[in-house]
Amino acid sequence: MNRILMLTISMALVSSCATWKTPKAAQPGVFKSAELTAPDFFFSTLSATYFGGKGRLKGELGLIISAPDQLLLEVRGPGGSPVSTFACDGKTVSLFEMEGPRFYTGPANPLTMSRLLPLPVEPEIAVDLLRGRLPMPETATTYRTKGSAQQLSGEHPTLGRLRVTRFSPKHWQWELPDEDLKLTLKDPTDRGVFREIVIKTAKDEVALRMQDLESGGEPPSPELFRLEPPPGVAVQPL
Known about the structure:
The chain is mostly beta strands.
């Protein structure tokens, strides 16, 4: 076997066995996400694919985000007609389902926020993630590298243990190890909003693809994020 072929095989074996290394410190600014350019609000259509206890489901969502903690998510049926609407004004979460119809409401917290997307975090964290402003550890405990990938682990004051991996400027991973929550984020816009997001928990996985993203014009009214039950529909706890 010639020497060039042997060298190629050796390099491939070394690359495939690469492990995380722990240098002295992270390079300044390595883990800055798009916090300086992220839009304060945007409107988008999302294609969603769900994997979990209900099998594999596909659908279309309408999303409106407004910083710091307002969110509206509309699940659309065939023809684009809404079948359910989830809204959060930062303090209260409401869910209206056309089938029934049924109306639910409750305080905005990680449990209620996870009723539609498997994203059990506070509203401001969910909005930041969807805007591309990835929360970072405030007390770093470990910095590691593997090839071009860089990983920072540490503590966040409200989230607890947090691990962020930067594979490239266009490919990130954000994890809460104690909650078994992992987000993979790819393909950011020029404002830093990730168009491809995969949310994975111990039981569910949702792949989101943003389309027709608009962040210009007037910001949405705060009233948009407050749902009211239709006449005659009982309010149930969420």
